[in-house]
Amino acid sequence: MPETGLRRELVKNRWLLSLAVVVTVGAAAWAWQLAATGFSPSPRLADRGVIAVALDANQTGVTAPVQVHVAYNPGTGKAGTTSLSLVLQHEIGAAPEAAPPTAAIVLICGDLATGIDMINRFNQPVKWKPVQPKSENSDYWSMLGGSMSRCVYTRVSLDSGDVGLRQEILSGISGITCKRASGPRLLYVLPGLTTLPHASAGEIAFRPLPPGSKAIIDLDNQPGDFSAQTASPQLPDSGVLRWTKELPGSAGPLSYRLSGELLDTAAIQQRNLFMAGALAGVAGGGIMLVLEAAVQLLLNRSRKRAAKPQAMAPLPHSQDRTEAPALITPPAAAPPPQRRDRSMSVAVAAAVGATAVLILLRRRRNRLWF
Predict the structure, then answer these.
(1) What is the average pLDDT across 303-312?
(2) How far apart are CA 75 and CA 24, in angstroms?
(3) Could you tell me which residues come within 8 angstroms of residue 116 by beta carbon, excluding any fewer than 6 positions away?
(4) Domain that holds residue 340
(5) Strand, helix or coil at 263?
(6) Are 111 and 82 members of one domain?
(7) What are residue 69's DSSP bridge partners?
(8) Membrane spanning segments where (predicted)?
């Protein structure tokens, strides 16, 4: 009977059906995860702090400009940290042995001061001290992004270098990260860089850098597939992720923000999302064929019950009981459905085989990609 054939095929293909269900559910979950990652919200990150460089208040005769160059490497070092280097360069007119050392003060304020650990050009650890301000005013509050009690400082002496140029190099790490990723999108938030006006705070007194001084902020070691999209302040059209600013000058930004996209990561996620959708569609098609056969089996059973003839019709009261009862002719049976013995087996086997081929192709493409 057709019902027996359908039932036999369902029992025979139960393992293929189970495999198709597992592949469909797994591919759907994989596609959902990829969609949640690829279409995640934009990354957000608060300001990281401010670096301030000023001259010691006793350096009244320094008129040559000072260049402050800060380079950030958020992608190196331990996770959740930021590597940075600070280079101070001072151009002087006299020979180094004839000119007095240039004394500068470096302040690191805000979150960037968390776990700060740096060394100088002699590989000696830099000693940081907390700032103990006598009073706070609006100038410091706006330039440093908060209270000076959140700052640490160190004294730097520029007393060596080539003729006409002195420099000091501080390098190390901070215990906070300056980047945030969300799917293929990446956000960098670099601390601001400024100088300070004439003032004193606790044991230190400082004055601003000479006119003509310049600040340079670099972002190094970004991923090779990173494509910058928006920057604040705007980046110059030079192909280099670098900001420049005159010091002293107007109050600089409290942070330098750069957002973009990882092109390779976005391409891989789109390809994987397509593969997951294809796996779910192919395996789901095999399940639909099996479900169709199961529904057909149930319909055939219900039709068979409805088509069973009654033995004889009841006799009316006025009819003679000696007459032979009139038999009821049963309705014509529904035509037997077409057998799906081979078609269902081939469909389920093809669905499972196609999923296996797609999985193997995906693994091979991943190996070739990397």
Answers:
(1) 62
(2) 38
(3) 108, 128, 152, 172, 173, 174, 175
(4) 2-37+267-306+336-369
(5) helix
(6) yes
(7) 87, 216
(8) 273-299, 344-361
